[in-house]
Amino acid sequence: MTAIASAAPAAEPSCYSRLTNEWVCSAYWTDRREEILDALVQHVAITAVAVVVGLALAFPLALLARRFPWLESSIMALSTGLYTIPSLALFPLLVPFTGLTATTVVIGLALYALTILVRALLEGLRSVPADTREAAQGLGYGSARLLVRVELPLALPVVMAGLRVATVSTVALTTVGSLVAYGGLGNLIKDGVTSNFRAELLTAAVLCVVLAIALDVLLVLAERLMTPWARGARS
Amino acid sequence: MRVVRDAWDYLLDGANWTGDNKLLDLLLQQLLVTFTALGLAMLVGLPIALWLGHLGRGGFLAINISNVGRAVPTFALLGIFVAADSWGWTGGHFPGTAGLGPYGRAGAATLVALLLFALPPIITNAYVAVREVPLDVREAADGMGMTGWQKFRRVELPLALPLVMSGLRLALVQVWATATIAALVAGPGLGRVITDGFVRTRYGQGIAGAVVVAVVALLLELLASLVQRWLDPTSPSRGVRSSVRKDGMPVGGPMVATAADPSAPHQ
C-alpha cells in the first residue's frame, strides 16, 4: 500500500483508482460531489416521507386502540409480526402492488416506523396521570380539547423517544431500498460493493450514520422547544 | 399481478426447493448462520451485561450501545467488511468475501456483522433486567447473608430472566433480518433468492424468496415467544412481580429508547 500511495500524486490515477482503492479519498468527494449529494437528498426525502406517513397512520391507530381495548391486542400483534419481517423481504412483498418505485420503499419503511410509533403513542397517552385528566375534565374539557391541550403535550416525551427510534432506524433501513434502486445512500453502498469501491462505501456508510445522528439531535432540540415546561425539571 | 402467480409457481416447483443453493439448502444455511451468531453473541454479551448489571456499573455504555447499533446500517457494515480483504494487521484475509466452511461466501464477514448486530439488544436488555430487580429484594438477599454470587445466582438472575429472554428474542429477529441482508453483498442465506430474482428481473422468484424469509421470521418469533413464556418463572399465576414485569422496560427514560421497540415484551 505504501509504495503505491506515495507514488499516487505523480501518477495520474487518483486515490480511488482500482490500484490504490483508498478508504478515505478526497478526490472522490470532489469528483463525485453531485452523485453523493443526489444520493443524500434521496435518502433524506425517503426517510422523511416514510416517518411522516408512519406518524400520520400511527396517530389514528393509537387513538382507536386506546378507545377499543379489544382492538389493541390485534394492532399490537400485527405490528410485532410486521416488525419481525426483514426489510429485504418486505420490499419484494410490496413490489406487486407498487412496482419498482420509491413508493415501495417509502411504504415499507412507513410500516416499520408505524409499528414503533403506535406503541410510543399508546405508552405516552397511558403515561398521563389520571388525576391530571380528571382535573381537566372537571374544568370542562371535552375529549378533543383534553387530547390536544392536556394529553398530547404530556405524552410528548415518550412519543418523541419513539419518534427518535423510528427516525434513526428508518435512516439505516433506507439503504436496503437499493434492492429496487431507491435506497438513497444505499445505492452508493450497492455500487461500492459490486465494484469493490472503498471510498464510495465508506463515504456512504459514514454519511448514513451522520445523517441519523443529525436527525436525532434535531428531534431532541424540537422536543425541547415543544416542552418549555420541562426545561427546569430536567436534570 | 403476474408476478404473484410467478412467485406461487416458483414455490410450488419442487425443483426450486432441493439441491445445491436451492431454497432448503439456503434456508438451512441461514438458520445455521443465525444461530451460530446468536450463540456467539450470547457467549460474549450475556456475561458482561449481567455482571455489569450486578455491579451496577457501566450502565451508560450498556444502554447506549443499542442506540449506536440502530444508527449503523447493516448493509453498510457488511459492505465494508466484504471490501476489507487486505487490512495489513489481519494478514490480508479478514474478512473479505472469503468463504467459511458451511457458512458460504463472505461467511466470516457475515458472522462478524451478525454478531455485532446481535450484541446491542442482548447487552441492553440483560443489563436493564438485572438493574430492574427491586432494591428491597436485593436488600432482603443481603440481609439473609447471601454472598454477591449467591445473590446474583439465586435472586437477580431468576428475576431478570424474562427480560433477558426478550432481549434474546429481539436479537434473534435482528439476526435473522441481518442474515437476509447478507445477500446484498452476495453472502450466505435465503436473501440470495431475493437479490438474484431482482438482479435477473425474475421478480416472481424474488417475491417467492421474500415469502419464505418472512414466514420463517414469523415462525422464529413465535417459537421464541413460546420458549420465553415457558421459561418465565414469573409469568402465570404468581402475580407478585407482574406489575413490574408487565411493561418490560421503563418507557420515556431519556436513555432507554429501546422501550419503544415493538418487539419488547408486551403480553
Highlighted features:
heterodimer, A: 235 residues, mainly alpha, MetI-like fold, 0% strand, elongated, disordered N terminus, B: 267 residues, disordered C terminus, ABC_transp_perm/SBD (chain B), MetI-like (chain B), transport (chain B), transmembrane helix (chain B), transmembrane (chain B)
CATH class of chain B: Mainly Alpha
Largest sheet of chain A: none
CATH superfamily of chain A: MetI-like
The CATH topology of chain B comes to MetI-like fold
Strand content of chain A: under 5%
GO biological process, one term (chain B): transmembrane transport
Keywords (chain B): Membrane, Transmembrane, Transmembrane helix, Transport
InterPro entries (chain B): ABC_transp_perm/SBD, MetI-like, MetI-like_sf
Pfam family, one (chain B): BPD_transp_1
In a nutshell, what does this entry contain?
Chain A is 77% helix and 0% strand.
